[in-house]
Hints:
This protein is an all-alpha fold. It has one domain: 434 Repressor (Amino-terminal Domain). It contains 7 helices and no strands. The protein has helices at about 5, 10-20, 25-35, 40-45, 60-65, 70-80, 90-100. Helix 3 packs across helix 4 (about 40-45).
Amino acid sequence: MGLTGELPGLSFAGLLRQSRAEARLTQQEFAEVASLPPLSISDPERGINRTARKDTAGRPAGALSLAGAVRELFVAAARGTGAMEPSHQASRTLRQSRNAYI
């Protein structure tokens, strides 16, 4: 189904895991691309940290080349704030960003 169809029901852990898997990156590779320590990827995916720190919440979104509303949704999920209800435009933008990355 892909990430765009799954946004509303995913926790940050699920969203991060699915985004990374769709980019075909290991946790280590994704951490390197996002300029984060590997634990900043593995801990949220395992549910150890349910949210990301404010100063690092946007790095995974940047590594996935997310922008606009999609980036805002991703960062909101990372921070544990806001509803994750993507608009049609946000879904289309995420699909395009993901396809360009892969």
